[in-house]
Amino acid sequence: MFKPLTQAVQLGYRTAFNLFEWPMAGAQRLVGISRVAWLFLLPNLLIFGLFTFLPIILNFFYATTGSDAILLSQRPYVGAENFSSLLSCTDYLDPNSCRRDVFWRAVYNTGWFVVLQVGFMIAFSLVTALILNRDIPLKGFFRGVFFYPVLLSPVVVALIWKWILQRYGIFNAGLEDLGLAPVDWLIDAHWAFFWIIFVSIWAHMGFYTLILLAGLQAIPSDVYEAAEMDGASRFRVFSKITMPLLMPTMVVVVVLSLIRAVQAFDEIFVLTGGGPGSATTLILQYIYETGFASRPQLFGLAAAASILMAVVLLVLTLLQLRATRSQAEG
Amino acid sequence: MAVVELQKLVKDYAGFRAIHGVDLRIDDGEFCVFVGPSGCGKSTLLRMIAGLEEISDGELRIDGRRVNEERAAERGLAMVFQSYALYPHMTVRENLAFGLENIKTPKDEIRRRVDEAARMLQIGDYMERRPKQLSGGQRQRVAIGRAVVREPKVFLFDEPLSNLDAELRVVMRGEISQLHRRLGNTMIYVTHDQVEAMTMADKIVVLKLGTIQQVGSPLDLYNRPANQFVAGFIGSPRMNFFEATVAEQARGGIVATDEGGRRVEAAVSPERVEPGAPVTLGVRPEHLEIGSERGHPVTVETIEQLGGESYLYCRDSNGRPITVHKSGQTRIRAGEEAKVFLPAEAIHVFREDGSALERLRIGEEA
Ligand SMILES: Nc1ncnc2c1ncn2[C@@H]1O[C@H](COP(=O)(O)OP(=O)(O)OP(=O)(O)O)[C@@H](O)[C@H]1O
Ligand SMILES: [Mg+2]
């Protein structure tokens, strides 16, 4: 009863193995056993090369050539001119004195955005994580609530908030109901800058809260019990036990969110379009607009700006690698 | 310095009673050991005393003062955890100093006490290291040091040695006993290792399922176990048990018949049994006499000869395992038949409810 079945299975296996075996054996004979590994890596290398490595090289060529031609063969070599054009200012503190004033405005906007968004977001995430780490009712529900926006597409996030904040949005409708004057939330430069920070904190803090929460839960509870026996006040437990033990996680969170803030684009682009004027234009949007949205398309300038930005990100990434490594080593 | 009193102490976890009204008095300077099988509530009881676990009902008094509502630190206790629970980011010195800094002790006073504890526990050479850079035994010393510097009224230990290897455990056992002699504090020590309990304790508390089975000195528990559970728990290897029926009450004891119909005399008080009552006889392995002409026939299955002493693992005709501990060496070989005699004055008799009949003659005390 079993025997024919087993035999059939065996035959199936043997056929399948043979089928795989001859191309394998052929490949081994062709390139040598030790080089077969490269054969397996080839598809991945091709894709990586074509879509990641090649564009990086191309970007470098665009950055060192001029004109609005898109074909490299038609673009004249200009050396570092794109870079010097971006970097020429009479006073670096005043974007208006720069040749590329919008670039510098975007740089300053990005700087402020990074500092404020990361600073406040981490403060809020930490407080939220500390609260969610305690024995509060509906803990699972609240953890879900804070994490939920992370799952939304940035465009959806921006559209939701635009719908709330625009001139005839529900926020202003609410204000009017209360007898208050409506505010041009996205048209006033200061308010618009406030709201892009607010919305991107709202959209991303759940992610960092979750990481910090995991960091808090990794602190062994017996350490807290020892501190309790040692008579530590709540403040001392926080400052002398929780914070130092959370520090490695914190460093990772800071660096990750810095990288992300430097790269901020989509939700802001949808929410304010970089306006009013260039009040909420960040560096990535500048690159996009210079290279693709403006006429003539200044590919060279955009490529040069993206290289400058890549340098900043590279530094941050190295920091992150160091932080994660030292955390892994404890 | 400190008397600890437990009055009808109860611990309820959601829908589960872990401690069932425990009454206990631990005298000043006493080394008291809680012992019992896993899950019997030793840690829970200790943590209730420490203030880490809320007391559901009953009263806890330290030096006569009710402390149920006081925070852990206010009770004047220090605890050594099974997992050491050292602060991983602090050096040994900072670990020791942390508790004193919390109560704003002057700097030079902290220094003095920390150095003194370090000397006492021989951890002075690695004061600037972190816990991760220490061995298990060194960590345990630091954990004890952290308790010592606080100069507590009472020391609490929750299985402090169970993460150490056997050799180190013996060394640390000695050191904790020495610490107790030196400081003279009241100490409460939790373990499930009855050897630790026997060697360290002034007073042993045997727990089972959240109730106290017996309280007494180590030899009290060994010689006069109150019930079959304590008899089986204290002593290693375990006491041998035989089923029997009381045949007659006699002067100086009772006579019982075992399953094979053999008569066994036992020097226990005949007051609380009637002829015909089923009882359990218990004899410790070291009190069985093997190789004589009289007694139970058994088959010797395995022999462990340690030179100075021998363990014989036997089985009787009913298939019941019987362990015999003989000092010195033995000529008996595995597989041989032998007879095992139960001396009347060494027999413990337990009634059907497990409680022990009072022993009338106790050989060890002679
Ligand atoms: N937080 C808790 N919630 C519910 N039940 C608990 C809790 N902590 C302990 N228990 C139960 O209380 C009982 C006693 O636990 P305890 O930790 O005191 O045992 P123990 O004697 O220390 O055992 P061990 O030797 O394994 O450490 C156990 O049945 C355990 O399951
Ligand atoms: Mg325990």
TrEMBL record, chain B:
<dbReference type="InterPro" id="IPR015855">
    <property type="entry name" value="ABC_transpr_MalK-like"/>
</dbReference>
<keyword id="KW-0067">ATP-binding</keyword>
<dbReference type="InterPro" id="IPR013611">
    <property type="entry name" value="Transp-assoc_OB_typ2"/>
</dbReference>
<dbReference type="InterPro" id="IPR012340">
    <property type="entry name" value="NA-bd_OB-fold"/>
</dbReference>
<feature type="domain" description="ABC transporter">
    <location>
        <begin position="4"/>
        <end position="234"/>
    </location>
</feature>
<dbReference type="InterPro" id="IPR003439">
    <property type="entry name" value="ABC_transporter-like_ATP-bd"/>
</dbReference>
<dbReference type="Pfam" id="PF08402">
    <property type="entry name" value="TOBE_2"/>
</dbReference>
<dbReference type="InterPro" id="IPR047641">
    <property type="entry name" value="ABC_transpr_MalK/UgpC-like"/>
</dbReference>
<dbReference type="InterPro" id="IPR003593">
    <property type="entry name" value="AAA+_ATPase"/>
</dbReference>
<dbReference type="InterPro" id="IPR017871">
    <property type="entry name" value="ABC_transporter-like_CS"/>
</dbReference>
<keyword id="KW-0547">Nucleotide-binding</keyword>
<comment type="similarity">
    <text>Belongs to the ABC transporter superfamily.</text>
</comment>
<dbReference type="InterPro" id="IPR008995">
    <property type="entry name" value="Mo/tungstate-bd_C_term_dom"/>
</dbReference>
<dbReference type="GO" id="GO:0005524">
    <property type="term" value="F:ATP binding"/>
</dbReference>
<dbReference type="InterPro" id="IPR027417">
    <property type="entry name" value="P-loop_NTPase"/>
</dbReference>
<protein>
    <submittedName>
        <fullName>Sn-glycerol-3-phosphate ABC transporter ATP-binding protein UgpC</fullName>
    </submittedName>
</protein>
<keyword id="KW-0813">Transport</keyword>
<dbReference type="Pfam" id="PF00005">
    <property type="entry name" value="ABC_tran"/>
</dbReference>
